[in-house]
Every structure is written in C-alpha cells, then in structure tokens.
Specification:
The chain is mostly beta strands. Helix content is about 10%, strand content about 40%. It is built from nine helices and 35 strands. The strands form nine sheets. Strands 3, 6, 7, 9, 31 and 34 form a six-stranded antiparallel beta sheet that branches. The chain has a five-stranded antiparallel beta sheet with strand order 1-2-8-33-32. It has a four-stranded antiparallel beta sheet with strand order 4-5-10-11. Strand 25 and strand 26 (about 415-420) form a beta hairpin.
C-alpha cells in the first residue's frame, strides 16, 4: 500500500469507532515493515523509511515544549495548553528523514465529552531538532488559582541537543483511568499534576452526558418455573425512571428478542442498567426468571461491547446475550451513512408445519426501524428480491437483524434468524450475494447484498486540514541579558525567538491530527522530532492517569 493512502486508512479506522492499538495497526498495515506500537508507553509509529527510529516519552528534563521536572511551561505554546506528555522520535545514527512517517500519541482528553468545536481545537505542537538550538523561551509557573509569570531568556545548549540524540529509555506503569469533569478554574499545572500525581479529591465518578444504546439479542437455558409448558419470556430494562419492555417470546427456554432500547445518560445519573427477565402469565403475576446489572462504565470504557453473554442472578440457570455502546450527547444525531440492502432469496427453509411447506417472509430490524418482505407461499426456496435501506446514525445499533417467519393463521411461527454487523458492511463498503446461514433452526440460508454510502460529513473528515496556526514572532534584542526578567501579561504572550536572519522562522508548529479516538491521536512526522497534544481551550475534560511512568 502506497503511503499516500495511509490517511484514508486512518479515516476508515476512525469511522469504525475502533480504539487504535497494536492489532489495529497490524491488521490495516500488514504490508508495512517499519512500524511499532507500545501500549504501555502510549506511543507508536508507522513509516516507509527503511531505518528504525528512536522513540521515547519525555517525563523529565528540558525540551522545547515543557519541562516536566520543574513544572515550567514554555511560552512558545502561546495560548495552547498541553493534553499529553511530550513525545520524541528521531532517526538513529545513519538515519534519514526521507519517506513518510506517522506518530501515534496517547492523549489525556475525555473525547466523548467534547463538542465539535472542542474537537476542532485539538492540535499537535511540533518542533524539529534544527529549530531547537535557536529557541530562546520564557517559562511561566502556574500555582493554584493565581498565575505568576517569569520571563527567562534561556538558550538551549548544544549539550541538551546532544542528550536528545542519545538512546532513549522507556518508562511504564499500569495505572487506573478515571474521567474528570470540566471545571472553569482548572489550570494547566493542576491538570498536569493530576496526570502525573493524581490528587486525592479527583473522584472521577461522574458520567458524561449522552445515550446508551443497548440491544438484548437472546437468552439461553432459562429456568423452568411452572410444572407445565415452557416459559413465555420477556425482558424489562430499567435505568433510573426510564423503562423499556421487549416483546414476549412464547413457549421457549432460549428466546430471541433482538430488542433495542436507548437510555438518556446525565452526568449525575446512576451507573447501572437493570435487566430483568419474566415469564408472562395470562393469570396472576408474571414469574421472575432472573436479573443482571450492567455497569455503564463498562460500556463507556469498552471498545467492543458486542455479543457479550451476561449470567442472570437470583435464579438457577440462564444467561442473556447483549450488545451496547455509549454515544456522547453531541454525536447522537450525527449521520454515519446509508446502507442499501437487497434480500434476494432463501433456500432449504425449515418446514414447521407437518402438513405443508412454509409460507416464509422476513422482518428486518435495525433498532426500532424495521422492514418486512412479502410472503412467498408454500416453498422452502423463496425468492423475495426485496430492496430496503437504513440510515445509519451514531446512535444506531451495530446489528441488522433478519427474522424469518412462517405466515400462518393466528401467531406466525418463527423459523430462524441471523444478524449482520453494520461495521462489516461499512468496512467492506459492499457485500455482494452473501449466503448467510440462519440460526436457531435446523436448516435454512438467505442471500443478501449490501452497499454502504458514507455521509457527506464523514467524507469531509478524510480531507486533512494541513493549515497551521501562526504566531507573531517577537524579536528579542541580542543585547538583552539572558537572565533579564520582564513582566509580560497573559494577553501579550507571543512566540519568543532569537534574532534570526529569517524573521519568519517558526520554532513550533501546531498541526491538525489526521486521526483522533478516545485514547490516541495520529500526526504526520514530517521533519519534526518533538510532539505534544495541545488545545487553545483551557477547560477540556481529561482522563487522568493515562500516561504510564516510573520514578
């Protein structure tokens, strides 16, 4: 794969909503030899350069962006504040800067809690080794609610640059993740202290506002309550004052519902969704068959909460298969795309009636949206050629369900069912004449075709904005002494640079990432060596303790 196509691959991964990791890197770039990813380190790269680079997370010592050891922020960042550690990547001895390289950087941001405007404010501050030896930078110290500034004219020495060229060490330690809420008084170094030395009052127990989309697919081996007959089970979901009830499946220990419910989540809401299974009785009270508790934090933090079996409690036997996802408030109505499908035909459809063949029809569901095909009379090999479509939103369930019924007098008998993963359709863009075996029946298959068309907004996301934010350069007279202190207001902070022949030279660039998920951003390296995720918004919510380190 040509390196020019990599941006499109990153965009496709982001559309799928899969958290980036080593497996994702390997699956999507298996033909690229020069790549690496260290989850403990929170850092990785992919390159078509033939030389292995040296990489590290800078936790202490001087660098052109922030001094983590002394809690001093370099004012060349202007009004940008850090939301990651500083990362360093450089070619080793004999390395060259040719080819294309992308850096994978862990950030601290609570992405699901960000608005579109806040997401757009995320940049990566970058600096090259060539620029580092010419930077004079002032530093500021932020203490509590008051901000004290000192302007130190510090020339980065050749010794520091030489140290940066030495082989780097990697620091790692597994720590617990906790989301923090936004606070208008939260300052830069308070955030950094929470990241490196978590404060005792940062509880992080709150939930971000949004919506949980929960699908209860089916149950297995439900408990037998009565002496006669099988149960008629249904599911009751409760979240706070919100309640949703599934349809009843009659006479079945292994019912199939494919029932989807949506729950509105507030920041101070309860953390648990209660799922209860009952046996519907025509006379008297419905019998209790078991319950399970689903922690919303598990959904919030999971990258793949799909087809999970959850055991029922307060009963002898039984488990329930569920899928779920959390959608941030700002993304609930965001379109993802459009899936067009054709249900073409079936074969070897099971015969439920001893007297004749089935009269099959199919009900297709995506959450609460559904379509129904025509009935084809008296055949095990029906031809439907039924066209239909679903608009896919961020809040749409992941599974499209196909349920085959035998049209009959009274209650139609279920014959079999199968689910189709929307992520698979979106990834492949097109499924042509896919024979899919029905489940929960002795025999039967259906032939399906599907096409995915991304929403315009998703297509626009693939166009990477390479515009950088330029800051005015304030030229410092060489006659100023290196340790002279000046009082500079926050409004007057500008990029400070030594008097250079090239007055338009920019020591730090602020670049838009080509990819961003709940834990990582990806940015093109170009000729830069230092990287840090930043934003001009000082009050973005963060997930503390994401950066592994050791003393």
């Amino acid at each position: 794969m040509d390196s020019g196509e990599w941006k499109n691959v990153f965009a496709k991964i982001q559309r799928k909503g899969v958290l980036f990791d080593g497996n994702v890197l390997e699956e999507n770039f298996e033909d690229v030899v020069n790549k690496a990813f260290d989850r403990d380190m929170g850092f990785g790269y992919i390159s078509d350069n033939g030389v292995k680079p040296k990489s590290r997370v800078i936790l202490q010592g001087k660098n052109p962006i922030i001094n983590s050891h002394t809690d001093l922020l370099n004012s060349i960042l202007g009004n940008h504040l850090p939301y990651s550690q500083v990362y360093h990547l450089a070619w080793g001895a004999g390395g060259v800067s040719g080819g294309r390289t992308y850096c994978i950087l862990r950030h601290y941001l609570n992405i699901p809690g960000l608005s579109e405007e806040e997401l757009d404010s995320i940049k990566v501050a970058t600096c090259s080794l060539d620029n580092m030896d010419s930077i004079d930078y002032m530093v500021e110290r932020m203490e509590g609610e008051n901000i004290k500034e000192e302007n130190h004219s510090i020339t980065v020495s050749e010794e520091i640059i030489a140290q940066e060229r030495k082989q780097s060490a990697t620091f790692s330690e597994n720590v617990e993740r906790k989301p923090l809420k936004k606070t208008s008084t939260q300052r830069l170094l308070e955030q950094m202290n929470q990241i490196i030395r978590p404060i005792a009052d940062a509880t992080g127990d709150g939930l971000a506002s949004g919506q949980v989309v929960l699908t209860v697919h089916k149950a297995s081996t439900l408990e037998k309550q009565g002496l006669l007959g099988k149960p008629d089970p249904y599911v009751l979901l409760k979240y706070g004052t919100q309640t949703e009830k599934s349809a009843t499946v009659h006479n079945n220990y292994d019912p199939i519902w494919h029932f989807t419910a949506c729950f509105d989540i507030e920041e101070q809401s309860t953390n648990e969704i209660t799922m209860e299974v009952f046996d519907e009785d025509f006379v008297g009270k419905d019998d209790f068959l078991g319950k399970a508790i689903i922690d919303i934090h598990d959904i919030f933090e999971s990258n793949d909460f799909v087809n999970k079996w959850i055991p029922l409690e307060n009963c002898k036997t039984g488990e329930v298969l569920v899928s779920a996802k959390f959608i941030p408030l700002q993304r609930i109505s965001r379109p993802v795309g459009h899936i067009s499908l054709t249900l073409q035909k079936g074969k070897k459809i099971e015969k439920k009636n001893m007297m004749k063949k089935a009269d099959p029809y199919v009900v297709i569901k995506l959450g609460k949206d559904q379509h129904k095909s025509e009935t084809v009379k008296n055949t095990a090999n029906p031809t439907w050629n039924y066209d239909f479509a679903f608009d896919i939103m961020e809040a749409s369930p992941r599974q499209i369900t196909f349920e085959v019924f035998d049209d009959d007098i009274g209650n139609d008998r279920p014959i079999g069912n199968v689910t189709l993963d929307t992520d698979t359709i979106m990834e492949k863009q097109k499924l042509d004449k896919l024979w899919t075996r029905l489940e929960n029946c002795k025999s039967g298959e259906i032939l399906i075709s599907a096409d995915f068309t991304p929403a315009p907004a998703m297509e626009d996301n693939e166009q990477i904005n390479n515009t950088t934010t330029n800051y005015e350069i304030e030229v410092i007279d060489e006659q100023f002494e290196e340790n002279k202190v000046q009082n500079i207001s926050m409004a007057e902070k500008n990029l400070v640079h030594k008097n250079q022949p090239d007055g338009n030279h920019h020591a730090v660039e602020f670049i838009d990432p080509v990819y961003c998920d709940d834990e990582y951003v990806i940015v093109e390296k170009n000729d830069n060596n230092w990287f840090m995720v930043v934003s001009s918004n000082p009050n973005l919510p963060i997930n503390v303790n994401l950066v592994p380190f050791k003393q």
